[in-house]
Amino acid sequence: MEALSKEKYIDRLDFIGYCIEIYKEAKSMNGADVYRLFEKYGALDYIYKYYEALHITGERYTIDDIDEFILKRK
Length: 74
What we know:
mainly alpha
């Protein structure tokens, strides 16, 4: 894994928080349940790893991409 500057690391963590928020709204879930779901299926690591690609997409695409990622792991 590449060494990230503190700023880039914080950007990725902020984006994970953003993804939890948009996912919970889209799925009518609470944040804790979304976090547990993401943790269970490795979506947190996925979002972190693919931040560069995901953070430039729209909200709907990001949600759909996370759904597809989780579905493949069920």
